[in-house]
Design a protein that fits this description.
InterPro entries: FMN-bd, Ion_transpt_RnfG/RsxG. One of its GO terms (molecular function) is FMN binding. The chain crosses the membrane at residues 14-36. The protein has 218 residues and is α+β, with helices and mostly antiparallel strands. The protein folds into 2 domains: 19-61; 69-200. The chain has helices spanning 2-58, 182-199, and strands spanning 72-80, 84-94, 97-107, 115-122, 127-134. The longest helix has 57 residues, at 2-58. The chain starts with a helix and ends in a 19-residue tail after the last helix.
Length: 218
């Protein structure tokens, strides 16, 4: 009897350690769950905000009233050098006729990468408007080209693949650049030209729809 009591007393510290370990494991697991849950909710919020921003931006990329309640926007996935991988392109139709295109394209020539751009093109692939969809350029330097700070991007309006000297003046082109943001200015100008060259031979009918998957890079 005394031996059994002694054994129970000897097991008590072990049981206490085991219980403490289990509690610690549960607390750790709960902390990990809460962190992952917070990250998931934050990512979802960021995506919603980004999608809302993109939707609002789409409405500004073509002339007024080109996109309206009766417009048909067909989203396609583009994988092509000069445009980027998994970029979205929208074919804008009214009354069955194409009125323009809106396309995302990216460049790795800025200070920080990627620099994601968006352009609105008329049915003849002339640029109506270029904007920045996503940028991590240095605040106060590279972001000087942002429409919230300047109208610099308007220099690309009405350009097309045949526009001569499609580069900034510092590199022999005909486009101005913002002092202190030469790299970003040039990255956007050159990327726009690359996009215009690449889009010329795209057959949009052959591209995968956005919800159907991705095409391979050409």
């Amino acid at each position: 009897m005394q031996q059994e009591i002694k054994q129970k007393k000897q097991l008590s510290p072990f049981l206490r350690s085991l219980l403490a370990g289990l509690i610690l494991s549960l607390v750790s697991a709960l902390c990990v769950y809460l962190v992952l849950k917070a990250e998931h909710e934050t990512a979802a919020t960021i995506k919603l905000n980004r999608d809302a921003k993109m939707e609002n931006m789409l409405m500004t990329m073509l002339p007024n009233n080109t996109i309206n309640a009766n417009s048909n926007l067909k989203c396609k996935i583009v994988n092509k050098k000069g445009i980027g991988r998994n970029m979205k392109a929208y074919i804008v139709k009214n009354n069955g006729s194409i009125d323009g295109y809106i396309i995302n394209f990216s460049t790795a020539k800025g200070y920080t990468n990627p620099l994601l751009l968006i352009a609105g093109l008329d049915k003849n692939l002339n640029v109506h408007r270029v904007d920045i969809a996503l940028s991590k350029e240095t605040p106060g330097i590279g972001d000087k080209v942002d429409r919230r700070k300047s109208n610099y991007l308007d220099i690309l309006n009405n350009t097309n693949v045949n526009t001569p000297n499609f580069d900034v003046r510092k590199f022999g082109g005909s486009f101005d650049y913002i002092s202190g943001a030469t790299v970003t200015s040039r990255a956007i100008v050159v990327a726009t030209h690359d996009m215009l060259k690449s889009i010329q031979d795209i057959n949009f009918k052959e591209l995968a729809d956005c919800q159907e998957g991705k095409t391979s890079e050409k």
